[in-house]
Amino acid sequence: MKSYKLLNHTADIGIKVWGKTKKEALANTVEAMFDLLTDSNNISVVQTKQRTISGADIADTLINLLREALYMFHAQAWLCKKCEILELSAKKLVARFSGEPYDAKKHQLKMEIKAVTYHTLKIERVDKGWRARVIFDV
Amino acid sequence: MSEIKLERIDDNRLLLPQTGKMKVPGIIYANEKIYQLLKGDESAKQVANVAQLPGIVNYSLAMPDVHWGYGFPIGGVAAFDLEEGIVSPGGVGYDINCGCRLIATNLSFVDVKDRISDLTTALYQHIPSGVGSTGSVKLSGKDEKKVLEEGAKWAVKAGFGLTEDLEATEDSGAMAGADPEQVSARALERGKQQLGTLGSGNHFLEIEVVQDIFDEAAVQAFGLRKGQIVIMIHSGSRGLGYQICDDYLALMVKHMQETKIELPDRQLACAYLNTTRGRNYLAAMACGANYAWANRQLLMHHTREIFEKTLRMAPRELGMRLVYDVCHNIAKIENFKIQGKMKKLCVHRKGATRAFPAGHDALPARYKSVGQPVLIPGDMGSGSYVLVGQEKAMEETFGSACHGAGRVMSRTQATKVSQGRSISRELADQGVLVMASSKGTLREEMPEAYKNLQDVVQVMHESGIAKKVARLKAVACIKG
């Protein structure tokens, strides 16, 4: 996981994530979030899950994607290593998550992420692709 | 705070003049020292953003512990008209009814100082804390709904505490209007296993000693004395509260266009109070608040049991009684005098503590003559303050005061600065025993990451919003 950087925010934690394409930037944001939770090098790919996500626009769809992924961890104790965006339109996407159930012996949790926020949220075109910026409430 | 100009009103207040789309001016409670710290972040801009929301009354306020949040600043207070105003889940925060509970004991530090280590170890072993921890109580669907409706009352009925605990809890530990039907299946799922857990991040349970006394009458009414052992618990509504906030935030963003409310930041998404969506959020939020009160009631009950067992003392001997439980992340419908007339308003306190004065109807009989205890937890090691609410709070801050020290350093900065240092050793040298499930949390929560609590409290004291009653020194701290 090297495609993201931590942002300085007084109370919370933010990330800046890059991708060659918009799909890749969105998928990398999910992977970065799980790397904040636990070292994603220790997550294996055992199962895959697929979800269709929608939102008011692309930014809202990204937040809903992260919400769905975070819920997998909070309620189903499941960790995602790899995320792929299979389909993407202006207000909808189909994502595939690959990972495994959380195991306290194998995965050391680094922090609690309470929620994904809209605060200073951005998804934008940059020189060599796409960049997303998200702040989490931790 | 690049483009925002603040004007000093007096030693403890700054005016943020009404400009652009702001509907009211802003007021930030800060002395010069705190103002210098504020310059580095975006909190004043966030105060200005809140001032743009429909139906806001008088001022968009920030307490002296203000810091950059998301949407509303942390330390923000704003009141809205019930007809023309809004309610915003982001103005309450994810951790609905995050709050503090102070427990007094008959113990003196001099008598038990050799047992602090045993007590701390026992508390750390038996009180679930840290990321993903689960509680001792597994709730059935039916019981969980009762928790959401009855809050701490459910806990006391179920054997986790005493009726007198409820009298010393804001809203008697059960907020009216809670409707579990407005809470999603996801939120209910997350709430099932977390009742009686401390959580992580800045949540804690501390053993503290009453160190300085500033107000004899209030100290007596609150049952405190110098050298006394007290326990401070800081926790909230856990995953259930986070999910309720998130669900309604998503819903309000989805319907943003039809509400026709122009927002400078989506995190401020809101609904008019007189709409079904606004009412449903308040009914769900009350469920989150009640879960938090039940949670802190359980944490207190376990603390009592652990003290009894470790010290082999009877409950009567220990005398562990609740001084007060007050929340600092909430929206409440309360009465205030606006231009000479009493008016019901929806007050958002996001990282702000209710601070009602003597004589207020909402206070229990034993505090009526002095005012409400205002519990201000500090960062690890610096201890806490007990203040008492004053009439000025009703006139200026919608009955609110600060809620803590407030961060000045981001978590990543704190982690960097603390590289190569042992935070637990440094705290031990200051006489504070710390046990935490994560070293990372210790680094992020290091004392230097926060403003000086004394400065923050002094601003409240000098401005007459809440007066200092006692300072509590931490001797042991359990963190997630």
Describe the structure.
Chain A is an alpha+beta fold and 138 residues long. Chain A has a single domain, classed as Archease domain (Archease, Possible Chaperone, Chain: A, domain 1). In chain A, 25% of the residues lie in helices and 46% in strands. Chain A contains 2 helices and 7 strands. In chain A, the strands form 2 sheets. A 4-stranded antiparallel beta sheet of chain A has the order 1-2-7-6. In chain A, a hairpin with a 4-residue loop joins strand 1 and strand 2. Chain A is globular. The model of chain A has no long low-confidence stretch (mean pLDDT 93). In chain B, strands 7, 8, 9, 11, 15, 16, 18 and 19 form an 8-stranded mixed beta sheet that branches. In chain B, strands 1-2-3-4-5-13-12 form a 7-stranded mixed beta sheet, sandwiched between helices. Chain B has a two-stranded antiparallel ribbon with strand order 6-10. By secondary structure, chain B is α+β, with helices and mostly antiparallel strands. In chain B, strand 4 and strand 5 form a beta hairpin. In chain B, helix 4 crosses helix 12 and helix 5 crosses helix 12. Chain B has a single domain, classed as tRNA-splicing ligase RtcB, CATH 3.90.1860.10. The model of chain B has no long low-confidence stretch (mean pLDDT 94).
